[in-house]
Design goal:
The complex is a heterodimer of chains A (326) and B (291). Chain A is built from 15 helices and 4 strands. Chain A is mainly α and 326 residues long. Chain A has a single domain, classed as Orthogonal Bundle (ABC transporter involved in vitamin B12 uptake, BtuC). In chain A, strands 1-4 form a two-stranded antiparallel sheet. Chain A has a two-stranded antiparallel sheet with strand order 2-3. In chain A, helix 7 (153-176) packs across helix 8 (178-188) and helix 11 (236-249) packs parallel to helix 14 (296-309). The longest helix of chain A is centred in the middle third of the chain and has 27 residues, at 200-226. The two termini of chain A are 18 Å apart. In chain A, 49% of the residues are buried. Chain B has a single domain, classed as ABC transporter involved in vitamin B12 uptake, BtuC, CATH 1.10.3470. In chain B, 74% of the residues lie in helices and 3% in strands. In chain B, helix 1 (2-32) crosses helix 9. Chains A and B meet through helix 5, helix 11 and helix 13 of A and helix 3, helix 4, helix 9 and helix 11 of B.
Chain lengths: 326, 291
Amino acid sequence: MTRTGAIIVGLGAIAAIAAPFFLKPFGIFLISTWVVLTIAAIGLNLTLGYAGQISLAQGAFVGIGAYTVALLTPVGVPFFIAFLAAGLLCFAVGWLLGYPALRVQHHYLAFVTLAFTTLVFLVLRNEEWLTNGIYGITGTPRPTLFGWKATAARDFYFLCLCVLAVLSLAIWWMLRSPWGRAFVALRENPIRALSLGLDTRRYTLMAFAIGSSLGGLSGALHAPLVQFIEPNSFALGLSFNLLLMVIVGGSGYFFGPFVGALIAVLLPEWLRITQGYYLLLYAAAIMVMMAFCPSGVLGLVERARIALVGRRKEPATSTLAEGAGP
Amino acid sequence: MASFIQLLVSGLATGAIYALIAVGFTLLWQTSQTINFAQGEFVMLPAFFVLGAMNAGAPFWLAALIGIALSIVILGLLFKVVIVDPMLKYGVLPLVISTIALSLFLKESAKDFYSSQAQPFPALVPPTDVHIFEAVISSQSLVVLAIAILTVVALNLLLNKTRVGRQMQATAQNPTLARILGIPVRQMVLYTFLLNAVLVAIASILVSPIYLAKFTNGETLGMAAFIAAIIGGFNQVRGAILGGIILGVLDNLSAAYISSQYRGAFPLIILIIVILFRPQGLLGRLEERTV
C-alpha cells in the first residue's frame, strides 16, 4: 500500500470511529447497516473479484447466518458461540454447494447459486415449525461481552466495527499469503494457473466457502441489529444488491466492498428527494458505469490517479499487477 | 384421469410460453454470448405497450401489433445498440451485471410510469370450456398452445428453410468462419435480437391474460426461461423448446400431486441436477470455445 493509500485508509477508520458521536439514532443504524453489509460484500468480493466466479447466493448465506443466531440465542447459547456457529455453518454449506457447483463455471454457477438462493428462501418461508415462516423472528437479543453490554445502538455499532476490522485484517493477510496470490492467479489466467500446478478447483472452492462464511457472519450481526428477520429480506433481491455493491465499489479491489456498501446504504437516503424514482436512477447509473468503467468507483479513482500522477511501480490497490507477479 | 389431462394441457400451454421465452434467450446467447438477465422483464414489458396503445384508443388487434413493433424497436434494436454493443468488448461478466441492472430498470419503469397494480389484460378468446374425454379444458389454454406451436413452426421454417435463417445459424455456430464465407455477421446478430424481441412480445400477449400485466411478472418468467434453456441445452433451439415444455408440465403436475408449497422448488432441483450431471443440457452439445 502506498503512503497516500495508508493515509486515506487511516482517515476512513477515524471517520468510522468518530461518526456515531455526531449522528442521530437513525444515522447510527445506517452506518451499522453499512458495516454489516460490508462484511457480506467482502465475502462476495473473494468469490467474484478474486476467484472470478459470479455467485448469487451471498444473500442466502446472510439469511442462514441471521436465522442461526436468531434461533440459537433464545435457547441460551451465548452470542459469540452462535456467531461462530453461523460462520462455520455457512462455510460448510458453501463447501457442500460449491463442491459440485464449481464443476461448472461462470454463468452456470450464477444459475446454480440463484436456484440455491430461491430454495433457501422457500425453506425459510415454508418450514414454519423452525423459522416461524412469513411472520419472522423478532427480538434477537444484542450480546453482552465480559460484562459490557452492547445493547445501545452506538455500542452495538462499535461491536460490528470491531468484527469488521478483525475480519478485514484476516482477509488482508490471507490475500497476501500464497493462498491469496493463487486466488488472483486463477482469476487472471486459470489455464496458466493450472499449468503452474495450482489445484484451481480446490482454490476456487476455498474462496467460495470462505466468502460464504463471511456472508454468514454478516447475517449473524444483522439479526441482533435489525431485531426482526423474515424470509423476504434474504430473497434474491439481497443477493443482487450485494453483487451490485461489489461491482459498484470495484470488484477485485480490497476496499471495493467498503465503497460499494457505503454507496448502497447512503444513496437511497440522499436520493429521497427523487421519491419513487430512486431505484430507476440507481439501475441506470449502474448500466452507464458498466459501459464506461466496468471496474467500479475505485477503478475510476485509479484511472484518475494515473491520469494525474502518472503510473507508479506499485498501484495502490490494484490486484491486476499482483496477479502478474509471482 | 380427467384432472390429469386438464393439468397436462394447461401445463403444456404454460410450457409453450416458457419455450418461446427460452428460445429467444438461447438465440441471444448463441450469436452474441449475451446472457440476458432481463429476459423476464422483456416479457413483462410488451403487455404494457399493448395496454398503453389500448388506452390511447386502439382496438386490441392494432394495439397488439403496436406492442410487437415497439418491442422490436426498444427491446431489440435499442437493447442491442445501447446496452450490448458497448459492453461486448469487456467480456461476459460486465454484460451480465448490466442486464441485471436493466431488469431492475425496466421493472421500476413499468411500476413508476404505468402502475404498481396488476392490470387486467384482454384475453385472446372468450373464456369458454371445451370438453375432451370428460376433461374440461379452457379454450384459452388451447389457443395459447396453438399460437405457440405456430410461432415455433414459423421460427423453424425461418431458421432452416430460408437463406437468412441459415446465415443466422452459421453465425451462431462459428462467427469467424461465417464472416470468411461472406455472411454479414453483424447484421445476422442484429436479426437475432429483433427475433428475440418478437418472441418475447408474443409470449407477453399470451401470458398476460393468465397472470395479469404486473411489473413483477418478469421474475418468475425470467427464471423459468433460464431453467428451460439450461434443462434443454443452452446452445440448441429445440433444446429450449423441450426444456420449456418439460418445465411447464412438471410445474403443474408437481404442484397438484406433490406439494404446492414447494411448487417453486421442483424446477430448481431439476436445474441443479441437470447442471451437475449433464451441464450441456438434455439436447445440447458440449461447448469448446473457452480457452
